[in-house]
Design goal:
The protein has 242 residues and is mainly alpha-helical. The chain is 61% helix and 4% strand. The strands form two sheets. The protein has a two-stranded antiparallel sheet with strand order 1-2. A two-stranded antiparallel sheet has the order 3-4. The chain starts with a helix and ends with a helix. 26% of the residues are buried. The C terminus is likely disordered.
Length: 242
Amino acid sequence: MSDQAKDLIARLLVKDVSRRYTAADAFNHPWIQNVQNIVDTSIASDAFDNMKNFMEAVDFKKATLIYLAAKLPEQCIIELRQLFIMIDINGDGRITSDEFQKAISEYKIDYTKQQMQDLIYMLDTNNNGYIDYTEFLAGCMKSKIYLKEDYLKMTFAYFDKDKSGFITREELHKVLKSEDGLNIPDREIDKLIKEVDFNHDDKIDYNEFLTMMRRDLKGEEAEKAIRQATLSAPGIKEALKK
């Protein structure tokens, strides 16, 4: 760990509240400012492209990505964390509409005003008027990350509360209407089940879950992601034993 990073941590851990660094102080610290300078423009372009996929995804997939975003190890999200810091101009830990619009302009992302508004609306899954850090990670996450077998098994198990190897309507209701879920109305959850339940048995098995997670990927991207992440996906009962 660098001396600058240690200095920032020390200032954030000061017991005296009057002397402790605020979010704005931390944002302006040299270590944070230096981090901003190493973000490649291509990272931002890829991130905004991934946001479009997130916007087009079914709500179940969005909920899966939000859960996963909160669980990913730091090494998987370093670039996205740096990008978030750059967009979050005032360093308050959330992205406003103005900050988002400025980022789109600076990175020369080809969005119309309506597309930008739609994207902010879809990313703001908790409806607080901002794009929070976890929402940002979920929206920007690369398919090669979320299609890794370990992460797929972990997220499926999160929904499959009774470990039966299936996600039932009741389990999906429980998760998607929880405080940390998307707070989706009952009628929308019923519709969501039908979109993912391809064999019409009123529950979601692991293969159906995989198919949903592979959706919205196009052409070569889809083939590459599936080949890298789920080359030989086992059945869920066998997978969960590992």
